[in-house]
Amino acid sequence: MNPAYLYDIHLPARMDSAKKYPVIFTLHGKGSNEHNMFGLVAPLADDFIIIGIRGDLPLGSGYQYYDLKSLGNPIRELFDEAVKKLQAFIAYATEKYPIDASKRYLLGFSQGAILAMTLALTMGDQLKGIVALNGYVPEFVKTEYPLRSVKDVSIFISHGEYDSIFPIRIGHENASYFQDLAPSLTFKLYPTDHGVSEDNQHDVLNWLQQDAGLMNKE
């Protein structure tokens, strides 16, 4: 079985061959690549397998997972295909590497956050949790996709208060949408534009360690 995407993988340096590990799949933003998100979660590399997934559509010097008709308006066929291929990739990686299937996390920024939230809704408790940084859920996902329960999925959503790409209103809409669906929802705002601050990173790292049942090493 060949993977649907090219990817970058970091295995814990001192792996126990008898053990399975939690995994973080990272999903980059438009025009970026599979290496871009690693720095955000590098402090967790001793305890998690970290896999950066590269979008398969070239965009400038980087990549994207799907293209847009306009800002906030994905080309539906490309978006649907990306969701399907990402689900297949997660299955592929889980079979190939010593991944604990009960502790699979997605972490996405911007376009990657849009996909992370969509995959939570389509995969349900096949995922342990997601981190969605500065994204949104397309309306057609909410109304037309076959959705699964996320009551057992841990969800961390954050948004920049001064986000010039996706206004703060969208962050509040995300929180409102998931609030009634996911008891384990964390929603945080940070005084940033369309990016990830040090405080945001710190909170994400702590949240992932705690949710996966790992001791906070700080």
Automatic annotation (TrEMBL):
Keywords: Hydrolase. It comes from the Bacteria. One of its GO terms (molecular function) is hydrolase activity. The keyword Hydrolase applies. Residues 20-209 form the Phospholipase/carboxylesterase/thioesterase domain. Gene3D superfamilies: alpha/beta hydrolase (3.40.50.1820). InterPro entries: AB_hydrolase_fold, LYPA1-2/EST-like, PLipase/COase/thioEstase. Belongs to the AB hydrolase superfamily. AB hydrolase 2 family. This is Alpha/beta hydrolase. It comes from Paenibacillus aestuarii.
